[in-house]
């Protein structure tokens, strides 16, 4: 096992993964930090000003050791005709017009500039590889960089960019898969086997993630060579998380009995509780971020209305182990 550098290594070996779209609040990051665990803000879907406000909120709480995750622009083009066909399909279900096609880069340059001008201890990257020059600029500012990967080739490519740490995500993870090629399907491989293969191939420390909900599961990853783990679904019901009430309720509803990997909500593969939306659109096209913007009104309305069957119910395979209460208690229960 290769040790984690700096604040990553000083923290307890159970980190909190960044969860974009609401769950990763400043309160969550601060509470985890007070308990000795490293947590990250999720910069995805936020503008630079909103992200700056969240960073300031964490700092004002007295938490100095934390990170920020960014979505690296990795657009998945979608043909106009394919987009319009899927929009028509969803409009028939929704009973109202939905947005025209929209693409963006998630304010990448603005957020990189923000974090270079006002560095935080850790910056991590998902969906794509940042340019080596970007990684170098963060290193010049003593910022630790972490890259999400799902395979040995991705790990090697990340190492070549000069990152400090690999976040090795298994296929059981909830929410978006970190695959660099959105058309790929993560291999159905036990996470500890993937960790062993990556640590044998690349001389970088590893944080393991994906479907972890018990202390025994955490121990398996540490025994396989990971220096720490990161959990997301395991804390989705805790007091400080920003999970919607509709999503929280679904995580304990016995009517939801399995997870599926779906493109239906965002045009990228993501693991969700199976619901009416995932069943109705099993062959949804690739197309990110266009489909994220297309389905956002449906998802927002569903969350507000308490309708779990039109909402992205992100959940890893270990979702049954998620508990309520303070996040510090949930994380302590996972320590091996």
TrEMBL record:
Q: Which UniProt keywords apply?
A: Detoxification, Dioxygenase, Flavoprotein, FMN, Monooxygenase, Oxidoreductase
Reaction it catalyzes: 3 propionate 3-nitronate + 3 O2 + H2O = 3 3-oxopropanoate + 2 nitrate + nitrite + H2O2 + 3 H(+)
Q: Does the keyword Oxidoreductase apply?
A: yes
Q: Which GO terms describe its molecular function?
A: dioxygenase activity
Cofactor requirement: FMN
Task: Tell me the InterPro entries matching this sequence.
Answer: Aldolase_TIM (IPR013785), NMO (IPR004136)
What does the sequence similarity comment in the record state about its family? Belongs to the nitronate monooxygenase family. NMO class I subfamily.
Listed name of the protein: Propionate 3-nitronate monooxygenase
Organism of origin is Curtobacterium oceanosedimentum
């Amino acid at each position: 096992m290769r040790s984690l550098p700096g604040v990553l290594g000083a923290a307890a070996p159970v980190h909190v993964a960044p969860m974009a779209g609401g769950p990763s609040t400043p309160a969550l990051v601060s509470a985890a930090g007070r308990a000795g665990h490293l947590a990250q803000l999720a910069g995805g879907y936020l503008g630079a000003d909103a992200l700056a406000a969240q960073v300031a909120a964490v700092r004002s709480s007295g938490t100095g050791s934390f990170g920020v995750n960014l979505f690296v622009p990795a657009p998945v083009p979608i043909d106009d005709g394919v987009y319009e066909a899927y929009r028509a399909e969803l409009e028939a279900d929704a009973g109202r017009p939905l947005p025209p096609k929209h693409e963006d880069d998630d304010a990448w340059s603005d957020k990189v500039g923000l974090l270079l001008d006002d560095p935080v201890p850790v910056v991590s990257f998902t969906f794509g590889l940042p340019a080596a020059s970007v990684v170098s600029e963060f290193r010049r500012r003593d910022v630790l960089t972490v890259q999400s990967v799902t395979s040995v080739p991705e790990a090697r490519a990340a190492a070549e960019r000069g990152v400090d740490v690999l976040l090795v995500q298994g296929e059981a993870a909830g929410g978006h898969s970190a695959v660099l090629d959105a058309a790929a399907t993560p291999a159905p491989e036990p996470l500890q086997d993937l960790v062993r293969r990556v640590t044998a191939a690349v001389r970088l420390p590893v944080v393991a993630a994906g479907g972890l909900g018990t202390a025994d599961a955490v121990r398996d990853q540490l025994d396989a060579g990971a220096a720490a783990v990161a959990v997301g679904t395991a804390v989705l019901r805790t007091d400080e998380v920003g999970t919607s009430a509709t999503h929280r309720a679904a995580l304990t509803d016995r009517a939801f009995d399995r997870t599926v990997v779906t493109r239906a909500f965002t045009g990228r593969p993501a693991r969700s509780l199976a619901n009416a939306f995932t069943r109705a659109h099993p062959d949804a096209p690739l197309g990110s971020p266009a489909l994220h913007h297309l389905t956002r009104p449906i998802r927002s309305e569903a969350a507000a209305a308490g309708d779990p069957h039109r909402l992205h119910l992100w959940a890893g395979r270990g979702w049954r182990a998620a508990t309520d209460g303070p996040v510090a208690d949930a994380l302590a229960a996972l320590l091996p």
